[in-house]
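seq/struct pair 1
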Amino acid sequence: MPAQTRRRRWLTICAITATAGLVAIPASATSGRHSSPFGARTLAQLAAQRAHSVGAISSKAKADDGDDGNEADEIAEGADQYAEARTSPGIVAPGAYGAAWQSLSNLPGTDGSWHNITDLPYNSDDPRYRDIDSNSSGGSGNVTGRMAAMAADDDGYVYAGSAGGGVWRSRTGGGHWQPISDRLPSQSTGTLAVDGAGRLWLGTGEANTNADAYLGSGVYVLSHPHHGSFSTRSRVGGDELESTTIRQLRFGGGKVWAATSEGVWSHSTKNLRGPWKLEFAPNPDYLPGGSKATEDDAAYKNITNDIAFDPKDSSKVILAVGWRSGDDYNGFYTRTGGAWQRISSGFGDLPTDADNVGTVTFAHSADGSHYYAIDQSPEQMATNPDSGLEGIYSASSPFGPWTKIADYKQLATDGSALTTAGYMPGVQAWYNQFLTVDPANPRHVYAGLEEVYETKDGGATWSTVGPYWNFTFPCWSIDPAQQTGNCSPTTHSDQHGVAIGRYHGKSYVYVGNDGGAYRRPVDGSQDASGHATDWTSLNDGTIDTLQYYSVGIGKDPAHGGVSVTGGLQDNGQSILRSNDKVMGSNFGGDGGDTLTDPANGCNLAEEYVYLAIQVTQNCAVNDGSWVTDSSKATSYNVAPADNATSEARFIAPLAADTKNSSTWVAGGRHIWVQSHGYAIRSGSEWKSVYDLGAGRTATAVAASGGKVYAAWCGPCNEQGFARGIAVGNADGTGWHDITLPATGADGTVPNRYLSGFAVDPKDADHVFLAVNGFSRHWTEGPGAGAGHVFESTDGGTTWKDISANLPDVPTDSAVVTPNGGLAVATDLGVVYRAPGHTTWQRVGSLPAVAVLQLKLSPDGSTLYAATHGRGIYTIRVRDCD
């Protein structure tokens, strides 16, 4: 496929305001151009260094793709689209997820228990899979899902807070993890902090505001974190911080202060009862209960980022306030004469104007002599395709004056892997930030953006101790006998959390990023390029926070049993063969949908974003020899044309006919069909069998015996949201639109996002429909309607609501079991309706985690659940009855 140019998107704002709900705050002024389907996870730079083999390189890895792809754009657009499914056609009221969790908990349960099959190491550098579309040999080693926050103490205890899989504890300085928040209604971590009394504080609701960040249920404290776990009884205060994200918890003056998406709040650290106090909200009319609370932009009007205290007087406070894409209220505030006032001068190099104050992180030395700050600039993000970073700063007091000690150009020259125009340090500074100071040295600082940076002299010089990857460096080699040639292991990219603690008397820095948790000695070693030589991955398999979008299962002819694959947020596609003790990664980047041949699990396809589909017939096993011999590549890019024209969703639907695994259906603006199965080698082999129409794009597809169902939306956000269903045949005949009432009248399919079909294997005209979002009780939008599961017995012409006692919760996927039962995946777990019954049961017991896809094993005996935060689980189908 030729290199393409994606238009720059000015994204419509949309968010949920709901307990434990989804929030997605897209970067409406995201920088950069979008021209590579593989984003920043490409081998483009590798390809440029090996121009002689360019003929072997798929469009993921082309050297001439313009800007090497801008993952910042992809994260922002993914945020928009992931949220659309749960919010459109309107705004969701607070309490929706909380009510759903209570309702789900009250359902009767089935027999049987879920079994986690991905609780083993996942090696992103597995030497077996060094094919053309893999990131193996990049240097990240063992990975797991995104880690949003880290905390540690001096007794060897480490705490890792994941984006959607809860909080985990290690008693051994990292590794041998145990989950400690499974009883909470929100598994989304915003921040972790250990106070002076040794208590562990948890602020729920991830504040990274990317494609899959969830709102939280408040702040919790664990008085003795070496033992026990969080519970709902350990919540601090009342429900004031429900339905918020919490970016920081800071301590001062006997209080804990919370920087949230709805202002800055405080609470006593001694008496944990009683309500939180709202200290400052720049636009209080937009808070819940305010006169403007229901306006579309309410979720963006009170975003706060951090708090800093004068070390000599904790009553003197600085607030960093602002929405990353810019607003008039962005800036720094302090209390003067009992009222909060914007700081307009005296800060030195650190900007105070609204255009250049965005996402901000503070840090200070243990002795209070040095303060540091990272500032992301809305203006930079809007106008500079290279970076959104305004700079890193230092001062002797949070009140300044501040001195700039680094900018993106300087960091790029200090050993960074991000030296290409369009993707340089800080290009995702609104998404990637951490900052901490060595307790033993006030001039020793760690800063996290896409990479990890270190200075030991207060910012005079910097080293990229955790580069994005090793592909760009002379020490790199794809040789499968080595992890990454002569390069040392690095961390996964995209940094979010940091902590410093001690284990066996030695100080370590712990970092959390899109690949999990890593550590190195605080005073660790570096090579001549300034890269650390001593990073250790802490993702040992006992911690599973992998964020799956999909799962695929096929027989493993070489070893017996089955091979299981799945597409992941920022961790490619995992592959687990029946004899594996370690999972491998055969495709890199973001993994969307997965197709696996039931008869041979090494025949598989992986979808990257926007229908960029890769196929392999050998599990993508490769020793890397494709680098010098183009004929040795065993993965092929087979994207249909909607990928090139941007007319497919970020995570687009892809399915195989349940009666014929060689017939595939993919959906963008068009419904595409190809009948060559896993032998397909070119995108030109797809045939458009139906045009949904300009502005429309498929949200779900399914096929059985040549009959195809396709759901669409367009527009897909709350501004004029519309949805529909088209039905036809794989050969292109018989296509027509189903008549659905535009307003989602009572008993009909609601005017909400249609997320999945399940076709009865015995009758292609008998089909079930999963509907996302919340019903009209929670959704303030036209035609929200009621119901989440609908049934048709006439090929989709008419539908009946069969939701019955199903909780009012976003519904993502469904599958008909061999006995005629129906299993449904929701944002809070799995439910099941037994054959001949009309009511629903809860399947097993999972934490409050979204299940995005369900699949059956080839023999139909086992149900597989792809969770977005806790890996892949299985349960025997017979145990559901």
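seq/struct pair 2
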Amino acid sequence: MGTTTPPRTLAEALRARGDESLAGLLRARPDLLNPVPNDITQLATRAGTRASVVRALEHLDRFALQTAEALAVAPDPAPYDTLLSLLTGDGLDDGEQRDDAGAAVTAALPGALTTLREQALVWGEDDRLRLVRTARELLAPSPQHPSPTGLGPTVAEATAGMSPGRLQEILAATGLPATHDPVSAVAALSSLFTDRTRMAELLDTAPVEALSVLDRLVWGPPYGEVTPNPTPPVKWLRDRGLLLPVSTRTVVLPREAALHLRAGRAHRVPEPVPPAVAAAAERDPQAVDRAAAGQAFTALSTVEELLKLWNGGGPAILRAGGLSVRELKRAANALDVTEPIAAFWIELAYGAGLLAPDGETDERYAPTPASDEWLDLPAEDRWTHLATAWLAATRTPGLVGGQDAKGRALSTLGPELDRSAAPDVRRRVLALFAELPPGTAPDAETLLRRLRWERPLRGGPAASATGQGPAPTEGTDLRSRLALWTLNEAELLGITGRGALSAQARALLTEGEKAAAARLAPLLPDPLDHVLLQADLTAVAPGPLERPLADTLSVLANVESKGGATVYRFTPGSVRRALDAGQAASDLHAFLAAHSRTPVPQPLSYLIDDVARRHGHLRIGAASAYVRCDDEAVLNEILADRRSTGLRLRRLAPTVLASQSDPGSLLEALRDMGYAPAAESADGDVLITRAGARRTPPRTPPVPVPEGPPVPDDTLLGAAVRAIRAGDTAATAVRKEPADAPSADAPSGSLPRTTPAETLATVQAAAMTGSPVWIGYVNADGAASQRVIAPVRVEGGFVTAYDHTADEVRTYPLHRITGVAELAEDGKG
């Protein structure tokens, strides 16, 4: 290969890349694509902005970040050997363990540098490695934001502004020759601190207490406070420049001295290799799959019960959005789970598009039309629908009960529960599960350690390195909390069983929903078409019931207990509920006889007949409301009952009472008094109340909040790279200047300016010779751009040309071309 000129800027380094490498940069940092840069220079500028660099640093693993941190405290530019030495040490304190660590760092460093180069955080050849300026500013030490390495400023930085006299005192105390040149004095002190032999001799003369002070500062933070009259050990260190003043009360250990004490290492413990995820237990894979399938079935039953609970219209929506604490408790009691778990099921149903606000004036949550379609699916398809929705959801029910940035409580279904990192964490956790052998349950602590290694800056302990505020403790960062919630939610949903990833979940992650459903289907119990009626007014369902049977039975009886078998209890209220839904006593007798494997007990038959005989004996209508009954004695009994006082009843006729309460309140009040009234229409017919009739208008599931710009596909990347290349060709092409051009330099990037006649003549000549030209062009929206085109035809006020910028043939109106210039031959103007 021939000799190439080393790049002098990041733009030159990017310009030297191949198209595939540029596409890799845009794929790793998609924020650089919005909008597509005009040329390489604009791409390099955008890649160096603070927001983009912070986002790129957040996606580095621990060792790539340590490599960047080492470059931030290395000379700029730094040779590869200097960087390697900062990560491995100078070798003077090596033992066998240090040798092993150094070998691992040596093996991993090329890969880390490749990652940093691909993401345009580092550029230059190995003999002149440069960290982009913004990253150096973020990772370099300062009093406001100490370096993640724990190193302080260099001697030159710490002594800037120090008086020459003070420098002479330090030189004299360390035995260095005096010099009146401050630059020479700083260089001499720096040379002393970087000389292993002379520095060791100097420290041999230090008091033991002074060495203890250095031990407290060496691994950071390097700053300490001093009193106006420091102790003798501190004074000894300050006199010899081992502690340099930052302010009247603050001193700092200079970087060169700290590196000597650290044996040249920038980090106490380099981590070139990702920590392994340990196994907590090894189980039978088939037992894992069965346990996960059982929990998947429970998940389906719980979501179905939730939909049934809110079937006729769910709880009201708070003014600020979300569900009230009281309604969450009510749902938790109905589902027989704790409130955090109830919040998870509610959020899961909402994220899957099964629940939504109904949009009414008195807005409430209710099932969506999609919930009916979901209920009609086979059980395995219902599970894959829930699992897929959970994987992609950014809503985080684990936050419920906490507070937002303004101290307001976070509520279930509230507006502040989206965390864009949640889907990435869930998939990464499950991917780490999948790397283990089937049936292996991972150790949670080692799994969290691995996640922290992969993304150390994502809200974790090192977040302060980027100036994003104080770092949270190791166990409370958001990414770790999301991982712990993922472990619990995956077990609830049946993704995992007994702590290990199930085969159906593996199939869902790698092969898709159909493969996962096929693996799950044989493990789910078949629905039953019968129950076992008992003499104590209960029915036992020994397994899952077919949906029509379960729906009818849930209206006719109340669920008393759940588990492997479900116990239903028949009560007067539940029977009346079935009668209100339009069933006759004969229908109920026939239903029970058809679906019971045991004879219908006589007490149950008597209960149905007794409630049916009294059902509808009283009629409720609108006056505000009225009660009518053919039996005057019943109305007399109601009027005499003290509990009816609040209803403000009065007799209109021997068989009619009027009330100022609304029909619904009157109906409920009389039922509470032990009667069995029925509502009637204006025509006098009994109104049938269908269970579960309320549905929202068609709703789409909530859209996950994306974590930054979406990753572009290959087609968009290819088009973007071509546009950037072409724009760069236009921006860097050498143009011929007209003879009458002004002597002053035109502004960088300015469009060419020629008269219409000159423009027409130049493009006609270029069309005849097939030569490319440089034009300035203003589109219909008024946006100006510069392009390199090869004119093919000029007629009718238009020029048809091959546009190198767009990599296609286009037609341009001549009146929108601001000017044209010929390209210089052989790159000379």
